[in-house]
């Protein structure tokens, strides 16, 4: 799983957008959390989102599968506009997988049942086929022998890999990651990042909120730097790390690289 | 497959093997424990002779002579087979479930064998003995069948069993009640039900009906729609602010006023009262469980594309109910005991029948025996429920998280 930059989507045309955000605003009560975010993500592109705490990174990626409602602007995912229409929301959630910082596995279900839940109940797949798919995915994330265990019996790194397998079982077109390694002990971070690298290789469209700058440098096609509810800098990793344009990004990088 | 936690088998450790050391370690380990031990022994010594005298003079004839009455009330004597059939149904289902959920074969088959021995040697009349033996056979056969079937296709047969339990409730009600004009199951109205039968019917109907109602009320109380939230909150608070007795009286008086076109039996009014009362407490228990389900669980379910009802049924409720299982079982045990309050509206459940037996001059002065018997019956059912709940908790792995 070594990192060859060749899989990056740089060569693809810009004409194939899968996510379009136009002037997205979001308020929590009177607090203006997103202040006019606009960006376009191409099919197969890997986006890394970083920025200081409270800058709206989580809020932004959660608006893409409507875990948070946006109040102004437009979000179009795979040709479907997110609106209050429940059918649109459900259609988009079927195509967008999400991995959380706290894993959020279902503790009352086995690993296998966690993974087959979506395919069986949402995709209406036969249980037998779903279990076959789940076993393939567990193989892919490197823990096929844990299928019958419960999440509470796994290590953090294993749990997060199950969470990735669970999201992949819906065969999504886009994967969202919200700080997938922040709750992990250092020795487990690598095993999760390896799975994410492999996923990037396979051509998945990915939006990743992370502070793992090594991963960002290696995998990202583009880095979005958030501050105070908006994208203040948007650049390829090379430019972002060697020659950041914005003062805030410079400060952020100096802080994070000195830790 | 790590799930099934083996029941800890009682092993005799070297310490328990030596009685003197055991006594010293457990009864005289501190000065206040020694004091308590001495005081307790003294109290026992003072009471024991009186207890022995009473036990010597106790005459259990009052219980044995009225056994049928205590257990079945005034259920027509030529229709008692229907109660036996109900018992057979329930016990066979217990056997099947124990087998399907991998119960301890030694415990279940052993218990059935011991019960069968007691049924053979005990002072029973022919039909009762036959039914008892049949019930024991039902438990044992059910256990083996349950094991066999689930070894073959586990998920399928477990689902079938759950369905059978659900169906068994209306089936037993029909069996007991029958219908007018039937020669096979002639109608035996609830007014003829009494004794332990009535106690159990009231408790089971109350449990089965208040469970879903309580869940709905709990969900309603957390609803986003203010009207629903309001109605549910008001209902729960009102019911919890009123004693069961007054609800039973109100059900007797108000139901006929609300539904004047129907002649509602007194027993049914009591069932409604008990259900409405229990549902409010059930709702509060469930609400506690719902609050304990982390927000991330719901978000993860939504992110997978599950809709609201699927999220509720597959993710939120299973976790919420598991978390408050002990509280729910505790509440159902209280419900079982609270059914004795229906005596105040003139129904003769176990305690009511006991009192009416004692009103008979033949049995003058036999209160102690009768009340002790009644207490023992309540205890057996309550204790079974709480130990079943403990086993269920363990099987669901509550302690593991
Ligand atoms: N449910 C909420 N209610 C009110 N305010 C919220 C809520 N969620 C987030 N916020 C606020 O919105 C702002 C953006 O939050 P967000 O979680 O998107 O930040 P973030 O960039 O992901 O930060 P972090 O790196 O700490 O995760 C913060 O100031 C936060 O306090
Ligand atoms: Mg965040």
The structural class of chain A is: alpha/beta
Shape of chain B: globular
Q: What is the share of helical residues of chain B? A: over 70%
Number of helices of chain A: 9
**CATH level-1 class of the largest domain in chain B:** Mainly Alpha
Domain tally of chain B: 2
User: What fraction, in percent, of the residue positions of chain A are helical?
Assistant: 25-40%
Q: Compounds present?
A: adenosine-5'-triphosphate, magnesium ion
Determine Rg of chain A (CA atoms, Å).
Answer: 18 Å
Strand content of chain A: 15-25%
- Give, in order, the helices and strands of chain A: EEEHEEHEHHHEHEHEEHH
Largest sheet descriptor of chain B? none
Mean pLDDT score of chain B = 89
Question: Total number of β-strand segments of chain B?
Answer: 0
**Count of separate DSSP helical elements of chain B:** 18
Low-confidence stretches of chain A: 1-6
Contiguous runs where pLDDT drops below 50 for at least 5 residues of chain B = 1-11
First-last Cα distance of chain A:
27 Å
Largest inter-chain contact set: A-B, 28 and 25 residues
- The CATH superfamily of the largest domain in chain B turns out to be MetI-like
Class by alpha and beta content of chain B: mainly alpha
